[in-house]
Design goal:
372 residues; alpha+beta; Aminopeptidase; OB fold (Dihydrolipoamide Acetyltransferase, E2P); nine-stranded mixed β-sheet; five-stranded antiparallel β-sheet; 25% strand; globular
Length: 372
Amino acid sequence: MKLNQHPLLQATQGTHRHVESEHYGAVGAGRKIYIQAALHADETPAMLVAAHLRQQLAALENAGRLNAQVVLVAVANPAGLGQYIMGAPSGRFELGSGRNYNRGFPVPYQEIAGKIEHLLSQDIDANCKLIRTAWGDALRATRPMDEYQSLQQTLMLLAHDADIVLDLHCSREAAMHLYTGESVWPTIEPLARYIGAEATLLATDSQANSFDEALYLLWVNLRERFGDRFPIPDSSIAVTVEHRGQRDVSYEMADHDATAIIDYLTHLGAIEGTPRPLPALRSPATPLAGSEQFYAPSAGVLVHRAAVGSRIEAGQALFDIVDPHSGQTVTVHSHNNGVLYMRRDVRFVKPGDPLGRVSGATPIRSGKLLSA
């Protein structure tokens, strides 16, 4: 294993942060796999999964079983990891600006398209290499204005030339679920089986430019521009893995999830060996635009009426909001048949507060599909 440190732009005098990347296997040996944890820095389960992955990857490397280069970033957001408010970690947003650490990653496809158009050919592998080189050049030419942009640049440089990208997160209270692109779902589907995803949400462009989306969206955009003339691959096959909820931290769950990822990489041929037989898919993938999102109509004590991961039917009661003064109760019902894949962890709400989400097979939303 080789350990690299990537300094971030200094935020203020006296502070120095860096991202550490661990590199397993030989550079150029087969495909490149990139795995990062806790870009939202308060999503602790992902970091424990990364710790378990480290142990397994080191053992596989020592045994000569890696057929790919694997890059692991166990702490993807050292800046957010240091943010606390009155003792409570707050790693989703940069507190100084309010920017979400997993939104607004650049997708410079127009700049790249202008540089490569006269160099593309009918050789899909050569086109892939050409695009990756131009993308790396574009990223390195960017001059970050602050630590936030420096972090984005660093992570994109580490991941832009990877074939498979796993971005490990978690939600508030949630079942295991995935977010990925429609075009790359066939390659991600075995991971959903191994890891036991209760829901998988698909979108080509959620208009959020999250880390995983920015990676595969560049290839989608280039294919839309050049696909009728030149073959453009799905090269950055990226997925966000939501490792349940923030309190779901245990050795057992982390070991299960890390082993599932190793099974998946073995299934892809990145690890030498016989993969475990594919389990059944727990739920079919559904459009992200089909997920129903629920909001509090009034203030009060939130009482959950359904467990995360449970199958929901249209009309089923999901949430009660109890007015502590009058005792009056308002019940929120589902309009979807699907899976309750995440819900709120705070048990008192104000009007407009998000309550949870149920997957659905039919698109019902448009525009920005991910929350801030």
